[in-house]
Amino acid sequence: MAAPQDSRWFPSNPTKFGVDPDYRFTLANERTFLAWVRTALALAAGGLGALTVLEDFNGADVLGIGLLALSFVTSATSYRRWALNERAMRLDEPLPSSRLPLFMAIGIAIVSLVATVLFVLDAS
């Protein structure tokens, strides 16, 4: 059964397509999804921490909101990644490429750079 076109952002339930793959692949895909969700939770905790704990720090709002935005995008994108991978496995197709790792690497690098600059400016 071929997969119908999904919306760009919210793929339909992947379990409605194809055949069940080896359960180990499904569980590995789920573990990866949960790792992305944990990463998003850690980013959210860091963002909330920056907003509440660093009240006297100039730029804490920028840092906190940046982390919260990165958390939102990570959590929202992780479901899409899981669903597209699951569907590809069920249809015996190659796994789709994902920009999430690249986005995360760039996002964390930017947040780290901003944090460093803000701390240096605040210390002087």
Structure, described:
The protein is an all-alpha fold. It has one domain (21-123). Helices cover 69% and strands 0% of the residues. It has helices at residues 23-53, 60-90, 100-123. α1 (23-53) runs antiparallel to α2. The radius of gyration is 18 Å and the shape is elongated. The relative contact order is 0.16. The mean pLDDT is 89.
List the helices and strands and how they pair.
Blueprint: H1 23-53, H2 60-90, H3 100-123
Helix pairs in contact: 1-2, 2-3
Chain-averaged pLDDT: 89
Task: From the alpha carbons, calculate the radius of gyration and give it in angstroms.
Answer: 18 Å
Helicity, in percent?
55-70%
Task: Give me the number of helical elements.
Answer: 3
Key attributes of the depicted protein:
single chain, 124 residues, mainly alpha, elongated
In brief, what are we looking at here?
The chain has 124 residues and is mostly helical. It is 69% helix and 0% strand. The termini are far apart.
